[in-house]
Amino acid sequence: MSSNRHPLFMPLILVGGLIFGFGLAYSHMARPEVVLDFLQFEDFGLVFVMFGAAIVSAIAFAVLPRIRDRAPLTGDVYGRRLKSFDRNVLIGGGIFGVGWGLSGICPGAAYASVGIGNVTILWAISGMFAGAYLQGWWRSRHTAADIGSTGAD
Amino acid sequence: MLEITLHAELLQAVPAEAFPNGISRYAIGGLLVGLGVVAIYLGTGIAAGASTFLESTLSYVSDQSRFQRYLGSRDWRVVFTLGIVLGGAIYAVVWQGGAWTTEVQPWRLLVGGVLVGIGTRVGKGCTSGHGVCGVGSASRTSIVGVLTFLSVAIVTAQFVQIAGVSP
Question: Residue B19: inside a domain, yes or no?
């Protein structure tokens, strides 16, 4: 898998992650307090972060497939991020919502939070791994019912 | 009765100013988050989200069948996450002037984290996968996903505040 990857593949992933993480830190999303301020209607700035990022992505997702067929480093066709809809989207979204509202932290922001020196956030990351393991353990035992669902981001 | 009390609390919660810290840090930060996604997409065609890392990394230590689907992407997802940590660290060193730690209580982070870990994986995405890449793809699934977790998170955070849990 990794042996035939383009030599610039990993460096680009690292640089992309770096810009992504810097943006999360710069926007203060790596601070749970600021996310909680949004959810408690004290500072609506988060709207600009999420939709600002979504608009930038939307432009790339819309324009690139028209000017190029395939990505240079992988040869993959440029596509959009489309997931099938089922009740898991609502159930999972609801559980995530309770967790996000209680803690003020989501996965990407949690990684960036480690970067800004917030060691306390390791509680949240430990919890996330535990939660991801729990659902993976449970779903591995119910694979028959799970056929057809694809990996999520 | 509860509804009336809740309404009164919500009204109190509405701030005099919608953006007490201005909007530039949020708009610039959001732009950068989007640019990070676009940089990876440009080169690889991958629309990356952050929460798959949790499951793909578990495949290194667990042979549960659920995690085996990520064998092909787990190495670059580790690199992506290291990049995110590094980006936060550069901000901390250059702009923040050192480490910053949260006052939010560890039990909230731990319990919330467990629910975030379950919910993002069952719900097929998180704030970056659904919120940025999915919404950016005009995916109906992602738009419904975002509306679900956003509204539930607002209700939860308001209840936490009303219950007097702080920080």
Answer: no
